[in-house]
Amino acid sequence: MAETRDQRRLAAILAADVAGYSRLAGADEEGTVKRLRTLRGELIDPSLAANRGRMVKTTGDGGLAEFASVVDAVRCAMEIQRGLTVRNADFVPEKQIEFRIGIHLGDVMVECDGDLMGDGLNIVARLEGICEHAGIFLCEHACRQLRDKIAAALADLGETELKNIAQSGTMYAMVLQIISPNAGV
Predict the structure, then answer these.
(1) Is 139:121 a contact under the CB 8 Å cutoff?
(2) Which of 155, 153, 36 is nearest to 98 (CA)?
(3) What is residue 153's three-state secondary structure?
(4) Which residues pair with 63 in a beta bridge?
(5) Looking at residues 3-17, what average pLDDT do you find?
(6) Contact at 8 Å (CB) between 119 and 10?
(7) Euclidean distance between CA atoms 45 and 80, whole angstroms
(8) Exposed, middle or buried by CB within 10 Å (0-12, 13-18, 19+), for 120?
(9) What percentage of the chain reaches a pLDDT higher than 70?
(10) DSSP 56
């Protein structure tokens, strides 16, 4: 009798989470949830589709998406962060919705329902967790795939230990050039 193996594949994984969600929801739960739903429909889902991404799961104020390409994952993240900057211009800083985004390239196990499991997801979740507000953090494996493909500066964060992850690695922060919607006015 042949042993059944888990299905595995290499994937670019994007993890995103709303920075300060508890504070935002505590101040205006219904308004915050309504704005997140609008962002999902008008910004996040279209950015995922345009960059060939697939939402694997949502986590209330965040989510995990899978891409076949790191370039596509980074383009999607950049579109989302830039789109949020424009949408936040109408809100005082305390009411702005900002995402922290982590991107990792790693091996994942695929469940029969399409869900993903494994170390690749653990790493990207920890990476997103240390990311700055409105930022994009990438692991070294993902950064290697971007060489000469994305016009963006990367800041080397050095060797970084991630909580409950056995091996540390070099992490990078993407430096986004975001033009304020009020610039030049």
Answers:
(1) no
(2) 36
(3) strand
(4) 16, 58
(5) 89
(6) no
(7) 10
(8) buried
(9) 91
(10) E
Q: What is the CA radius of gyration of the chain?
A: 17
CB within 8 A of 20, min separation 6: which ones?
A: 98, 133
Which residue in 79, 65, 155, 72 sits closest to 115, CA to CA?
Answer: 65
- Amino acid residing at 185: V
Of 180, 56, 168, nearest in space to 118 by CA: 56
Strand pairing class (99-110; 7-18): antiparallel
Report the predicted TM-score, pTM, of the whole model to 2 decimal places. 0.89
Cross-strand partners of 9: 108
Closest CA to 101 of 180, 18, 163: 18
Retrieve residue 56's tokens. 């694997």
Q: Tens digit of pLDDT for each residue in 119-162? A: 888 888 888 888 899 999 999 999 999 988 988 888 888 877 77
Say which residues have a Cβ less than 8 Å from residue 63's Cβ, sequence separation at least 6.
15, 16, 44, 55, 56, 57
Q: Which residues 6+ apart lie within 8 Å of 139 measured at CB?
A: 103, 104, 105, 106, 123, 124, 127, 169, 170, 171, 172
SS3 33: helix
Both tokens of residue 4? 């059944």
Cα gap 53→44, rounded to integer Å? 10
Tokens of 176: 């986004």
